Amino acid sequence: MKFILFIPLLLVLIVNPAFGLLSEDGTGLIKRFNINMDGNIFEVITTSNYDIEDHEFDKDEKRLTFFISSSLENNLGEIVLPNELLGNNLIFYVNDVESIQNVKPSENISFITLNFTGIGDNKIDILGTETLVGMQEISEIANTSDSPGGGCLIATATFGSEMSEQVQQLRELRDNSLLQTEYGTAFVKSFNQFYYSFSPLIADYERENTLFKEAIKITITPMLFSLSVLNHVDIDSEQSVLGYGIGIISLNALMYLGLPILGIVSLRRLF
Asked: Angle at which helices 210-228 and 182-208 pack, to 10 degrees?
């Protein structure tokens, strides 16, 4: 029975959830930094058109520093910063000069848009007024491939940011529905082992090849539309996950297999 459930859920996790101001043509170099503070690990995610060569965190000064190397004059980046790591009012310095940047806070994270100029080496300092805000005891974060959640590499590369509407919608579906059931949780853990074996390569190639990225976007758009149906139903039991999963896999089989086959047969009859 669990195996039957895994098939429809595979469609969900291929565009594994996980937000966007970087343009469609942006480089979108994604990096993840695990920052250790008092034995707690916090993941900071950056998406940018420059390279972050190193980082440094100073708990006493409540400061997170990124050392950047850029080949462009106009630099644009996004940072997903856990509020528990640095909270309250954030202050930014670009090369030791205070700078105003765009911050959109939410309950758990601050979504930061960095915009600055300068080719070559640059330094970004982010200072908070509090650390370990509302902190509860948490264990060290496991590797992405072993945890039930994980990043959405392919969808993030396709839509330009982890904060894009499409990626956010799918992440909420996974976290708020699939991971609330035994079957869903078991599948997500198993699937991550497979998904992260190939998704980094696809995501990297998407950032290098615009045509490939557009092809991926066209390919997964019908699937995203079908999955959006699940945001309007209650998935609160093993039976509902199984039922809706079978429905979604049937719909996608029709779109991706049935319609093309029907088209080929029709053309053959005409010619």
From this structure: 150
Q: Taking the CA atoms of the chain, what radius of gyration do you get in angstroms? A: 21
Q: Report the C-alpha gap between 207 and 209 in whole angstroms.
A: 6
Q: Would residue 91 count as lying in a domain? A: yes
Greatest Cα pair distance, the chain, in angstroms, is: 76
Residue 138 lies in a domain: no
Domain of residue 60, CATH code = 2.60.120
Domain that holds residue 223: 2-18+150-256
Claim to verify: residue 10 and residue 40 sit in the same structural domain: no
* 117 and 73 Cβ atoms separated by less than 8 Å: yes
- Closest C-alpha to 248, from 230, 231, 221: 230
112 and 180 co-located in one domain: no
Of the candidates 164, 163, 105, which has an alpha carbon nearest to the alpha carbon of residue 129? 105
CA 5 from centre of chain: 24
23-to-1, 76, 95, 110, 224 alpha-carbon distances in Å: 43, 10, 25, 20, 21
Q: Are 156 and 203 in contact (CB under 8 A)?
A: yes
Q: Is the dihedral of CA 57, 62, 67, 70 positive or negative?
A: positive
115 forms beta bridges with 76
Q: What is the pTM of this model?
A: 0.45
Same domain, 245 and 160: yes
Q: For residue range 179-228, list pLDDT tens digits in order.
A: 777 777 776 777 667 776 777 788 778 878 889 989 988 888 888 787 77
- What is the sign, positive or negative, of the torsion defined by CA atoms of 69, 74, 80, 81? positive
Please check whether residues 154 and 249 belong to one and the same domain. yes
